[in-house]
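Please fill in the sequence for the structure shown.

STRUCTURE ENCODING:
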């Protein structure tokens, strides 16, 4: 899943990044300078309120949020003093999270009648057959395809070419996006930055690049991207995504269960959680938050427990878990997923070691410009730009 750099290393460049999730969208203008962290010059996020929508209404609302955020950030950037120094946008890219960006592993097993030397051509053929059995179809467009796991005679190997085997197993990772959604993002990018080449990635690609850069060589880890309406989990082994699962649950379902039949709406409860984090809530409000989240946790445990069970059908999950989630829920996620209850799914039999991906965690790769509000999704966009151009 390692594609070409998003731009040349020579000199600086300015990127338009689109972060498209299930609960809204963000856009950002990001400057890249050789030898320095990427800098977010301007960003805007439009978040959808927690409410019931049909699938069509949901998609339309996110597309509108993306357009609103895009036009707002373009106007903001054009008015900044730094615009004269950095110049126009030269590259544009989008990252699609679940449920828009979907990633799935495909499996192909080839048995030979006699010992056979494995060649790159054989590997490519097996990968094509694996992906070919489930075409993306006219409604979805393939974003990425990559071989993530190879076995010879039932044994994992990182360097299969040139070896002799009687059987070859190839697992590929394929990421797709709704074709109309991709076309909308590309059209918007063309409007905001007419001369900028455009490329789209899945969230799996984005987080794989970032965590791969930060993790020790060959280290295994799991990544949980918790959105508003949907979440995605990936297990990385031997430097590649080996298993993935989509969870039909996110912060909206958590807040809905937490608010229950109480007097507060899901949005009001999330705001109260933010106040508790900032220290501006009184003791009664903090107790209300703790009780509400505790009431919602059995449903969350069930949803993610079922997903983790599927992920561990072949082998248990790595014990290192990286999470992307709404910043107001970061402390809750760290404690919740670090519980003993989840130790049944880890390869060590112990609780997950949890790290939430925050702007502070990514400070080595990016920084927010003066007056730009920190945003975890935008931080990931900027970190991706830096890593792919370092």
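FILLED IN BY: designer on duty
SEQUENCE:
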């Amino acid at each position: 899943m390692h594609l070409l750099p998003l731009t040349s290393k020579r000199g600086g460049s300015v990127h338009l990044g689109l972060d498209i999730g299930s609960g809204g969208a963000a856009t950002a203008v990001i400057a890249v300078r050789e030898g320095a962290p990427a800098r977010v010059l301007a960003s805007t996020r439009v978040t959808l309120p927690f409410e019931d929508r049909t699938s069509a209404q949901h998609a339309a609302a996110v597309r509108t949020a993306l357009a609103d955020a895009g036009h707002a950030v373009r106007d903001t950037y054009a008015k900044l003093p730094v615009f004269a120094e950095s110049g126009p946008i030269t590259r544009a890219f989008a990252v699609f999270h679940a449920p828009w960006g979907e990633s799935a592993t495909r499996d192909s097993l080839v048995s030979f009648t006699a010992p056979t030397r494995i060649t790159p051509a054989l590997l490519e053929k097996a990968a094509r057959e694996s992906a070919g059995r489930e075409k993306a179809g006219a409604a979805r467009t393939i974003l990425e395809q990559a071989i993530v796991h190879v076995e010879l005679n039932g044994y994992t190997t990182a360097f299969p070419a040139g070896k002799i085997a009687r059987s070859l197993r190839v697992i590929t990772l394929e990421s797709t996006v709704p074709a109309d959604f991709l076309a909308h993002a590309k059209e918007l990018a063309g409007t905001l930055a007419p001369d900028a080449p455009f490329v789209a990635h899945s969230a799996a690609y984005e987080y794989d690049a970032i965590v791969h850069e930060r993790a020790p060589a060959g280290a295994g880890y799991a990544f949980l991207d918790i959105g508003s309406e949907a979440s995605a989990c990936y297990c990385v082994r031997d430097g590649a995504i080996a298993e993935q699962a989509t969870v039909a649950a996110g912060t909206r379902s958590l807040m809905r269960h937490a608010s229950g039949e109480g007097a507060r709406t899901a949005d009001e409860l999330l705001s109260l959680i933010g106040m508790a984090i900032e220290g501006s809530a009184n003791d009664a409000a903090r107790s209300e938050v703790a009780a509400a989240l505790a009431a919602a946790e059995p449903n969350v445990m069930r949803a993610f427990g079922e997903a983790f069970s599927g992920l561990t059908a072949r082998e248990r999950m790595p014990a290192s878990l990286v999470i992307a989630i709404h910043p107001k829920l970061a402390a809750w996620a760290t404690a919740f997923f670090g519980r003993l209850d989840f130790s049944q799914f880890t390869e060590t039999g112990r609780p997950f070691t949890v790290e939430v991906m925050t702007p502070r965690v990514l400070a080595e790769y990016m920084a927010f410009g003066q007056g730009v509000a920190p945003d975890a999704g935008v931080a990931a966009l900027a970190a991706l730009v830096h890593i792919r151009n370092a």
